[in-house]
């Protein structure tokens, strides 16, 4: 009798373990899907809207200003991508460090890191702005600008440099906000900036 009871008890324990494993697996699968919806799709949507700016510029310029102006956008595009890379470096680094200190409960240190990162981003943007304006002609010639599109390239680059501080803060802020569990706010900022860019582009043309 004792042996039968013991075997019955072991069988129930094994069934309980199997049920517990299945329950944990289902719960983990739901958490993974929820995390995917929260941390993967909003940044993807934000990047789509963030990359709408050059597409909209090309559409507006090609339809109203001709092929020389359109080629000028291609000439200036590498400099815009360099600015984006610098923003990504600062934004990702700041987001990781801020998340680490916030998780450790050191909110004051996290706030200090965030403030210094924003100051560094603004300072670097201003320095690059000055360098771009001073060495605009050599940079455009290095990027193979032709005499036909040099004037358009200067105008387009000047506009990018004039607003680079705001664009860089927006671009780096996507990574910082995503690490701070505010990815919806980051996507909202990308959508608003894309809509404003569309309105300005079509009104300006």
Give an account of the 3D structure.
The protein has helices at residues 2-39, 41-50, 52-64, 67-103, 107-134, 136-142, 150-162, 164-179, 183-204. The chain contains nine helices and no strands. It has 205 residues and is an all-alpha fold. The radius of gyration is 26 Å and the shape is globular. Helix content is 90%, strand content 0%.
Q: In whole angstroms, how far apart are the ends?
A: 92 Å
Give the strand content: under 5%
Structural class: mainly alpha
Major sheet attributes: none
Point out poorly predicted stretches: none
| Counted beta strands | 0
Number of helices: 9
Helix content: over 70%
Based on the structure, what is the oligomeric state of the protein chains?
single chain
Average pLDDT for all residues: 76
Mass-distribution shape: globular
Rounded to an integer in angstroms, the radius of gyration calculated over CA atoms is 26 Å
Order of helices and strands: HHHHHHHHH
